[in-house]
Sequence to fold (612 residues):
Amino acid sequence: MNARVKNSIREHIVNRWLNGDARGLDDETDLQQIGVLDSFSTLDLVSFLDETFRVQIEPSDINNETFRTISTIANLVLEKLGPEGSQHRRT
Amino acid sequence: MNRLDALFAQWVARTPDQVAIDGGGELLTYAELDGLANRFARRFLAAGLHRGDRVGIHLPRSGRGVAAMIGAIRSGAVYVPLDPGSPPQRMRLIAQDCGLRHVVISPQLLASWAAAGVIDFIEHFFLSGDGAAPALPPLVRVHSWAELQATEAMPVPALGGSVDDLAYMLYTSGSTGVPKGVMLSHRNALAFVEWAAEVIALHSGDRVASVAPFHFDLSVFDLWSSLSRGASVVIVDEVTVLNGRRMLDRIHDNAISVWYSVPSALVLMLESGGLAERGAPSLRVVFFAGEVFPIKHLRRTMAAIAQARFFNLFGPTETNVCLAYELTGAPAADAPAIPIGRPSCGDDAFILDADGKDVAAGEIGELFVEGPTVMLGYWDGGRRTPARHPYPTGDMVARRTDGELMYHGRRDHMVKIHGYRVELGEVESALHAHELAQEAIVFALEQRLVAVIVPSDTTLSVLDVKRHCADRLPRYMIPADIRIVTQLPHTSSGKIDRVRTKAAIVEGDVNVLAPVRSVVD
Fold:
């Protein structure tokens, strides 16, 4: 599950902000430091997560720690999905 | 006309217990702000600050930052707000350009400066909060927050300066890759601030939002109109402005009555803050500036805040606000645009063709501005290049038959991204600084920067370019869309063909812009 969530987030980031060029990007790359995540792209990513995983990201969930790397974003999604998570996932 | 600091001092005497700055966690009354400003001024002078020296203000928006600005003016210096979101490398360019020796800084930002090694020429840092200073070279003196608080709050001797003295400098994007310092006097600021305060009858009961960063000219209104009229400034901090709901909460919870921002901030409250449903009953005035407000969003915003007066303000940093338009009602749904208005603040506006002759009504020409808001000039590494008069704004406009001016884009390569000025040349310079960038060109397409790069080596990745830019440019200048291609089209004179490149991007023409074959996993 974790790997699927990460892959899906990685794919979105690569297509949306890296023009399909995944070179150099890993799950621990600091997305703020490289200028991928700012206020506008974060909002875009939130709506992507909402549509893809059917998770409701609250304003209080959005901060520098949760939206930092693919791993931290995936952790947030998994936390929101809970143990029953995979059943709610739209495919 | 009184100087900015003198206008503030009148209210310190009249209403010392009134809230001057409501910074969320930190409230400062007029008396407290005055005392803190005096402490800053004393420490600046004790640290060898000379009249006319520049003082950098580098911290998140707060009452402490405002106190440091007032303290700088009182000690005879010029304040230079520095973007807390900009990378240290760009700050170094600015600090070098204006010869900064004294900087008020948060402990966190000082740590990032120290880590990036950009502090070699700064002599005195004044910390804006508790926190340990990082290891610094031996001759750099750090003044702790505790030392500042222990400093005598008595006023420093009055300097008796003039309203034509340089008060502050704002650095804007420069086409050659080096940011430009715009020099503004007390008179420049007050021509706008007093005009705006008069038009909306700003009074001591008003609560004025501070939404714009201090290095952005919109903040001049927020701070100085309030402090010169005895009103309260409510800081809507850097984190809150990223979130529509929190931003609208701040308006509701703090009964903000006057708002000035780029349209994007209002649109964010519409789209994710529930503005249409919740309204904003405390607002009586909404100013917006910095970018075109899309008509459909403007209509929804005006419907949601129906009780407020709405103004579209216009002017580059070099002229403050020079044109204004008050909306008398929401524009029609099919209106192509709203006017940028008529000359305000005592300014005159001329619309001239390429030969410097007045154009006829309805024809497009360049906007030239003359009057009290026009800057003193550019700092330009201390050469102090005076402003041209009348000042050529680079903005193309046309005068309607009813006298209102309409905006028709830029004459040059300056664009606006979410209200921020971006010289495409500055972004291109940053790209050229990458050792693998052979050719590079940048455009703006619908509020996004697009960079097209020909690499000297196919190992260059989009991520490499992003990271490289993030080390040199503020966030809003990092291209959102980066294309790495085998070649760019050129004109017969050998220059990169901007027109064909842009067209190929829009049309997705891979014959003109063939992507570099990369190893995709």
In short: The first helix of chain A runs from residue 2 to 17.
